[in-house]
Amino acid sequence: MNPAEAVITIDDIIPPSARSDLLTPAVVIARDRVRSNIAWIIDTLGGDPDRWRPHAKTTKIPSLYAMLAEAGVRAFKCATTREARCLLGALSEAGVDDVDLLAAYPWRGPALRSLETLAGTHPNARLSVIVEDVAVLDEVPAEVDVFVDVNPGMNRTGIPVADVDLIRGVAAAAGSRFRGVHYYDGHITAGAPAARAQRAFEAYDRLCPVLETLERDGRVIDEVITSGTPTFRAGVDYPRFRSRWRHRVSPGTVVLHDQRSAEEVPELALEPAAFVFTRVISHPAPGIVTTDAGSKSIAAEAGDPCAAVFGHPHLEALAPSEEHLPLRVHRGPPPPRDAELLLVPRHVCPTINLAESVVLVEGGRVVGVEPVAARARDLRCS
Question: Does pTM surpass 0.70?
Answer without folding.
Answer: yes
